[in-house]
Design a protein that fits this description.
Blueprint: H1 11-21, E1 29-33, H2 40-52, H3 62-69, E2 75-78, H4 87-97, E3 107-111, H5 119-130, E4 136-142, H6 150-153, E5 157-160, H7 166-177, H8 181-191, H9 195-203, H10 205-215, H11 224-260, H12 263-266, H13 273-315, H14 327-335, H15 339-357, H16 363-375
Parallel strand pairs: 1-4, 1-5, 2-3, 3-4
Helix pairs in contact: 1-2, 2-3, 4-5, 7-8, 8-9, 9-10, 10-11, 11-13, 11-16, 13-14, 13-15, 15-16
Length: 379
Amino acid sequence: MTVWESLVGQRRVVETLRQAVAGHGMTHAWLFTGPPGSGRSNAAVAFAAALQCPDQGCGSCHECHTALAGSHADISVMRTEKLSIGVDEVRDLVRRSALSPVGGRWQIMIVEDADRLTEQANNALLKAIEEPSPHTAWILCAPTVEDLLPTIRSRCRLVTLTTPTIEEVAGFLQARDGVDEALADYAARASQGHIGRARALARDEATRNRRRDVVAIPAKLGSLGACLRAAAELVEVAKQEADAITSELDAKEKADLDTAYGVVERGRRPREYGPALKRLEDGQKTRAKRRHLDVVDRGLMDLVSVYRDAIAVATGARATLVNEEIRGDVERLAGTSTPELNLQRISAIFQAREQMLEFNVQPALALESLMVALKGEAS
C-alpha cells in the first residue's frame, strides 16, 4: 500500500503531489487547506514521506515507515493541544529547519493547525519562509487560506482538500479497518465525511452512544426545564468524551516526568521537579479546555445535522439523511416546524459556537441559551 492510499476522496490532490514529488512544480512552502476531517495532516505526512522515499511514496521502505510513524529524522511535525501556537515553539522549529537533512534529501517542517499561530509566531514563520534553506520544505495546514496572514499564504503553493463522499468513507472503513457494511455506512453518514470521526464511530460503541444522546436532544426540548437539562447533558457528554481522550495521556506524561526527575527511584522530589510539574499541569489544563471545546463543537455540528435533515424532509429533497436511524424523530420535527424555523435554529447553533470559540463564553452558559433558542418558535 502506497502512502497515498490513506487520502480518501482526494484524487486530484494526490495527482498534484505526485507530480511535485517527481519534480514538476515542487516549491519550498505549501499550504494545505480543507474542512475538518478532510485529511489535511494525513496529506502533509504522506507528501513528506513521498519526498523522502527513493520510490516516491512506495509505503514499504524505511523512509516511508519512519515518516508515517512520526520518527523520521528529517521530518518535524508541530501539533498542539493548546488554544494557540506561541512564538517560542515556532522559533525552535525555524532553528531545526536550518539544519542539513540527515538523509540528504529534504528537511521537512509540518505545522498542523497553522491557524492557531499567534501574531508573533506568524512573524517568526514568515521570515523563515521568505529566506528558506535550499533543502527545506514547509507544509502548513489550516481550514482556509484566510486563516493565515496574506504575506505567508502568498508565499505558499495552495493545495485544497475536499470532504470525501459517504461512499468513499464507507469504502475506506471496510477496506482499511474491516468494518461491516451497515456500520461503515452509519459511521460515514454520522461523521459527515470526517475520516477520524468516522473511524471513532465505527470502532467504539461508547462514542456511538454519546452521539446518539446528542442527536436525540431536539426531540426533548418541550419545556424550559428540558432545555436546561439538555444543556447540562451535552456539557456532561462532552466532558466524559474529553476526559476519556486526555486522562490516559495525562497519566503517561506525569509518569514520564517522575521518571525523568528520578522521583520513582529515589523516592523524593528534587528542587527542579516542582516548577516542571506545574508547567506540565498548566499545559494539561489548557489541553483539557481545548479538547472539551472541540467535543462540544462536534456535538453542535451533530445537532446541525438533525435540523438539516428536517429541512430536507420538509422540502422533499432527495439527499440522504445524515441521521437515517432516527428518521421518525426527524419527520416529527419537520412536521411541527418549518424550514425557516430550522434555518433559524442552525443559525443559533453557529452563534453559540462563535461565543464559545471566539469570545470564551463558558460552554454551560452558551448551551443553556442555545437550547432555549432551539425550543423557541419562529419570530
